[in-house]
């Protein structure tokens, strides 16, 4: 009895001290509307008993009727949900709001740009930015044309086979093209099964990691490690890491060959430019790893590769696959994209200068990203108080930006917000909207480092595919449901048909 009383008294004292230490957080939280506050558990009840597909539908329905900004509690953690573009800009553009919240650690890549702590991220991002400069991106165009042309020939077998899931070949294509350009290794010799296993396993791995976020009872690592989910995660992580290990091994062979060549070639005029601006991602990362001040160990080096490879592969493959679906859904709009391609680059390789002239194609892909987003929400953890439009977001809160809701908000996009219309991105319409109304790759200093590379590679591939094939599908936009994950998932496969032009 004495022990029990001691435990109760200790727990109460701890709780009172805990509340006192967060007095400012609670004071500022009271200024923000919050309809789901329950003692101790906060708002966790709205997630119970719902799978990712049901959760999206439930949250979307709620968000259209809830105040913004809005507070919610995930156990002891204060969530501040904002979807007003001006407030989103205040948060994402703030230098005090580049830290990712603790949930990003669940993905086990917290040494790469995706989840690195703010200080580490700042140093590494500044140095790695040069590997996506216009000079470097332009140098990728011949290789991307070569890979896209090979992909088009690969599709010939599918064109005569009826309906097929286009995501699988696209996942293989994006892995190979990213490795060939940014990582300097050739994965085209790998078996199809190996490339497909990497992509499908990564999707399952990070989907499970994401689901852990809204299962608050699994947040403590000491509890999670005692579950079957942890054992499954470890097996998937081992499979996931095989690809980056392979790339590191291949890269070592490349460097050894280059070193041998340099020893034989003593004429400096024959050597290529190795200025920092011209270095691809892997070359820049290798240089950084040799700097002891940056503290990049072997695990950190591999995590940077994991981040780039998965981040580029799954987002590009999913965007392209979604775009293939919408092209098939709207044949009259597909014809407009095709006619623009014929006008700009009717045959042969796509030139770097041609890409900026593919205006309608970009509008079409943006509209696909608006209604079928790659990322459903993003989150930040402010390290200082962030004043925004009449409220103050406290340090210690987690700010959540629901892109899925913003990109379908009728207050922003009008009464036909659910209708697919690339004209939403006509220049005169864009000028009327806040620049943070549409941020598919995030925005501010911690946006996607490979965003320009993604546009480059996607445009080149779409040009090659649409010059050769006409796309159709039986799937309708209204039939597609989305489920929350690190990369948003559809309730259907990307089933299309190809017809030779």
Share of β-strand residues: 5-15%
Q: In angstroms, what separates the terminal alpha carbons?
A: 83 Å
The dominant shape is globular
The count of helical stretches stands at: 20
Q: What structural category arises from helix and sheet content?
A: alpha+beta
Please give the CATH architecture: Orthogonal Bundle
Q: Assign the CATH topology.
A: Cytochrome p450
Offer a concise description of the structure:
Residues 259-278 have a biased composition (Basic and acidic residues). The protein is α+β, with helices and mostly antiparallel strands.
What would you say this structure looks like, in words?
- One of its GO terms (cellular component) is endoplasmic reticulum membrane.
- Its cofactor is heme.
- The structure is a single chain.
- With 501 residues, the chain is an alpha+beta fold.
- It has a single domain, classed as Orthogonal Bundle (Cytochrome p450).
- It has 20 helices and eleven strands.
- The strands form four sheets. The chain has a four-stranded mixed beta sheet with strand order 1-2-7-4, with helices on one face. Strands 3-11-8 form a three-stranded antiparallel beta sheet.
- A hairpin with a 2-residue loop joins β5 (386-388) and β6 (391-393).
- The longest helix has 37 residues, at 228-264.
- It is globular and about 80 Å long.
């Amino acid at each position: 009895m004495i022990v029990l009383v001691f435990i109760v008294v200790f727990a109460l004292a701890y709780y009172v001290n805990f509340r006192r230490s967060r007095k400012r957080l609670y004071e500022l939280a009271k200024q923000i509307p919050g309809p789901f506050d329950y003692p101790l558990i906060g708002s966790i009840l709205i997630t119970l008993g719902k799978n990712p597909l049901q959760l999206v539908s439930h949250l979307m329905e709620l968000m259209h009727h809830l105040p913004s900004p809005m507070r919610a509690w995930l156990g002891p953690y204060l969530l501040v949900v904002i979807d007003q573009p001006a407030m989103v800009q205040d948060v994402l553009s703030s230098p005090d709001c580049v830290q990712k919240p603790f949930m990003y650690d669940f993905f086990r890549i917290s040494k790469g740009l995706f989840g690195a702590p703010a200080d580490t991220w700042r140093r590494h991002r500044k140095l790695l930015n040069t590997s996506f400069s216009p000079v470097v991106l332009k140098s990728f165009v011949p290789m991307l044309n070569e890979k896209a042309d090979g992909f088009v020939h690969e599709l010939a077998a599918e064109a005569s086979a009826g309906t097929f899931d286009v995501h699988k070949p696209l996942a293989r294509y994006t892995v190979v093209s990213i490795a060939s350009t940014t990582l300097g290794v050739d994965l085209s010799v790998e078996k199809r099964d190996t490339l497909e296993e990497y992509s499908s396993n990564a999707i399952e791995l990070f989907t499970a990691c994401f689901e852990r976020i809204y299962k608050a009872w699994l947040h403590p690592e000491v509890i999670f490690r005692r579950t079957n989910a942890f054992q499954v995660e470890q097996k998937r992580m081992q499979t996931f890491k095989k690809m980056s290990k392979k790339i590191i091994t291949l890269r070592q062979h490349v460097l050894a060959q280059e070193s041998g060549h340099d020893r034989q070639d003593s004429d400096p005029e024959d050597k290529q430019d190795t200025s920092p601006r011209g270095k691809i991602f892997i070359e820049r990362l290798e240089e950084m790893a040799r700097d002891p001040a940056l503290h990049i160990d072997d695990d950190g080096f591999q995590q940077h590769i994991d981040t780039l490879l998965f981040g580029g592969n799954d987002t590009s493959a999913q965007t392209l696959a979604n775009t293939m679906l919408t092209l098939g859904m709207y044949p009259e709009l597909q014809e407009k994209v095709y006619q623009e391609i014929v006008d700009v680059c009717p045959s042969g390789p796509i030139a770097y200068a041609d890409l900026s002239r593919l205006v309608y194609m970009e509008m079409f892909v943006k509209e696909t990203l608006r209604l079928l987003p790659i990322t459903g929400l993003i989150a930040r953890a402010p390290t200082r108080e962030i004043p925004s439009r009449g409220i103050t977001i406290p340090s210690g809160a987690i700010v959540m930006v629901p892109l899925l809701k913003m990109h379908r908000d009728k207050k922003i996009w009008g009464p036909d917000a659910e209708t697919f219309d690339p004209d939403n991105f006509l220049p005169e319409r864009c000028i009327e909207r806040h620049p943070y109304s549409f941020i598919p790759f995030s925005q501010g200093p911690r946006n996607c480092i490979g965003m320009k590379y993604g546009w480059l590679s996607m445009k080149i591939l779409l040009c090659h595919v649409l010059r050769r094939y006409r796309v159709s599908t039986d799937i309708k936009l209204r039939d597609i449901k989305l489920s929350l994950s690190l990369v948003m998932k559809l309730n259907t496969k990307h089933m299309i048909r190809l017809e030779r032009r």
